[in-house]
Amino acid sequence: MRFECEIYELLRPFHLKGKNIGLFDLIEAVALVTEEPGRIHAVQKEVYMVIAAERRCSWMAIESSIRRALEQAWKHNRRYMDELTGYALDSCPTAAEFVYICAATIIKKHMGTMK
Q1: Coil, helix or strand for 66?
Q2: CB under 8 Å, gap of 24 or more: what pairs does 52-60 form?
Q3: Which CA distances in Å does 67 have to 47, 59, 95, 109, 111?
Q4: CA distance 97 to 5
Q5: How is residue 90 annotated by DSSP?
Q6: What is the Cα 63 distance to its own chain's centre?
Q7: What does the alpha-carbon distance between residue 56 and residue 27 come to, in Å, rounded to a whole number?
Q8: Repeat among the record's keywords (predicted)?
Q9: What is the largest CA-CA distance in the chain?
């Protein structure tokens, strides 16, 4: 995947630990959606199940690990999450919403460099 390092840098301000498998699942989920944005419309089948097949676990385990990483991100740096979305969030986004927020940020950055 082309975007892994860029996604890791995007997530760095959240202070997620490398020992947290959710960080790696989140990076892979964001990369899949960044590469093919339409996957966000079938996130369970086209993102979580793809990662689960690689890790030989259930898609629910992938969603859960991403959700736990997201909860840590929300706890550590809500202000940065608001910055990524472009508005103040009232509550922590869902795992799928956060994957989309991160993928959209990367896509926008690349569209800006294509001009």
Answers
A1: helix
A2: 54/28, 55/25
A3: 14, 12, 5, 25, 28
A4: 21
A5: S
A6: 11
A7: 17
A8: no
A9: 41
Q: 18 is written with which tokens?
A: 């490398």
**CA 88 – CA 79 distance, rounded (Å):** 8
Tokens of 106: 């990367």
How far is residue 11's CA from residue 104's CA, in Å, rounded to a whole number? 13
Amino acid at 29: A
Residue with tokens 């795992």: 95
- The set of residues, in sequence order, having a beta carbon less than 8 Å from that of 39 and lying 6+ positions away, is 32, 33, 46, 47
Write out pLDDT tens, residues 38-69. Answer: 999 999 999 999 999 999 999 999 999 999 99
What is the model's pTM? 0.91
Q: Does residue 87 come out as left (phi exceeding 0), alpha (psi in the -120 to 50 range) or beta?
A: beta
Could you identify the residue written with the tokens 């966000």? Answer: 40
